[in-house]
Fold these 2 entries.
Entry 1:
Amino acid sequence: MQSHVPFGYPTPPASPTYDKYQFQPQQQPQYARHFQPVRCVPLAPEQRLGRLLEGKLQLTDILGTGAYGVVYSAIDIKTGIRYAVKCLSKYNADGTPLERRQVAYQQREINLHYKASAHSNVVSIHKIMNDVDCIYVVLEYCPEGDLFLNITERGHYVGNDLLAKQAFLQILDAVEHCHKLGIYHRDLKPENILQRTVPRTTAAVPPFT
């Protein structure tokens, strides 16, 4: 484990004050009847590859896509350390700005994740970057992929009760930590559990809903 502080941001405390990470909802401008809201053509996920964030964090690969964003693999070109970067668009697929409820959902996910990320079995959140068309959330990179992959295709858990027990206890620890903070994940399944190392498993619960 690296001992330096990534991006100048320390690991969040167990009960952080995270107001500075909260984003204000986009103000929906008032338009005259003959004006239409400004549209922004969303970039395809692959169009962001190679982009350099803050002059040092380069997006290199697509790790996954979902209804609410794209997750990239990124490397700090100065240190060589790899991160995962979640890109949350501020616009819908048709180019219209997100509605207030959609922006509030993004804020809620980021703030809950930041609040819980001090635990060793919750994916660490390192920094948030507010760009023109999206929000970048810099996360810990879990190189071994998800638990489902390691159970099925790689077979690491087949006949290994001790390893399964270790993973299960780590997940329980993370869930208990979140519940103490009043946070409930609501979508826990092997596909949504990431692993840092295998076979000495370290399970990590990813962002919340």
Note: The chain has a mean pLDDT of 81.
Entry 2:
Amino acid sequence: MAALGVFCLLLGAVSWPPASASGEEFWPGQSAADILSGAASRRRYLLYDVNPPEGFNLRRDVYIRVASLLKTLLKTEEWVLVLPPWGRLYHWKSPDIHQVRIPWSDFFDLPSLSRNIPVIEYEQFIAESGGPFIDQVYVLQGYAEGWKEGAWEEKIDSRPCIEPPLYSQDKHEYYRGWFWGYEETRGLNVSCLSVQGSASIIAPVLLRNTSARSVMLDRAENLLHDHYGGKEYWDTRRSMVFAKHLRAVGDEFRSRYLNSTDAADRIPFEEDWTKMKVKLGSSLGGPYLGVHLRRKDFIWGHREDVPSLEGAVRRIRSLMKTHQLDKVFVATDAARKELDGLRRLLPEMVRFEPTWEELELYKDGGVAIVDQWVCAHARILRHAGCRGVCGLPGRRVPCPVPGDTSCRLSRGVFYRHFGLHVLLSNSRGERNPGVGPQDDLQPVLWGRGEGVRAAHALEDRVLSRPAGAPHAGSQLPLGQVAPPGQGPPGWAAGCPLSGLRPGSPAEPRCVCPAFPRPTCLP
């Protein structure tokens, strides 16, 4: 029997195909069962991370860019996007709560994401690939010489690292790093790529320059959007549906404290975002004003632009009176002392204040999502204390409220029942590379719809467009004028679609197109 066993072992060794015969190589963590069965999936894994200080919504935006890259890769090979676990965000400051290694399913609905691109959680990647090993880590960086004046050029090159990478080799010559809080994860190779361009510029590198089965792009925020504002962009944005349990918490809160339900507010919703169709002007929104009041770190850098609490309350009361609302929901990061002052000034204020058990369950990120969800369903949403947009701090423009011309241009002011959308990109990657990186002001895309809906309460989005209007992804040149009959319904012929342009004081400005007789202002 022993001799027979040795013979069988030798026979198995002879019949075992060498790795080079199939072009496949053994990778760390690969199981013997995978090799023996020959059934191991040959799909490749794309991972990514961003600069640690970046916040929740910039990370969401980077996901859109990487999703576009994955779609490009899928045209040639089978790839899947590994979702980077959440954790250690600057604004998540609740003490004594474990807020690392958070899976995406805690915040987003994975089936909805998967209707757009194939995605898996990081721990599923570990299980599928056989261990916490990443074959190739590319650290994305700019060019040491920077970008010079002239024609914009998209390019990518293997270059020495400008700054020392945040990785170190252990005694086995594997690379250790942050890796989303998974201390056991190792990188097998780390190198730097200088990149200047949209996300898919890196596709040839992944398809031709490396055979690594798993590839991680660190500092992925250095990639720009492939088609900012196009159909692919909005498909990905729409797929980022918040987790069902957080939506349920927000809906229950709306019903209990704000007398707001989807049925009463005429808000349509489908679990499958691909089937969700919205009829223009159909939604009413809840009978309350939604306010996002930014404080803390935002005040430090914008002291001249951020109103005092008293000023914010005056503005809130003015809006409540204008729109005949007696309830206001406030989402804010204000400190306890400011909150106490806000309650004294605005006793009718309603806030989502979780118990300790709820905070531990939902985390700071989940609580912020509930805030966004409730704001998104308000009849009116005012973003108080938002960024100065597109290099236009302090410019006074007409407001959608009749007779009120005191507000500043802000992507954070949305009027649901007016159906106004002014889409402005900012200087943090949401720009058209063809315009050149020196321009903070980008083409403005427009459309009319239902205001903020189910994606991100504090950003605008186009759900649909009027007949005859340019596609939401059209890059309209700055200052382009809407030809008669081709602008949004109610838009006066001759008004520029793209808003204001720095250095062009003579350019006319347009009032809100939702009013009966909009006209251009001198």
Note: The two ends are 100 Å apart (CA to CA).
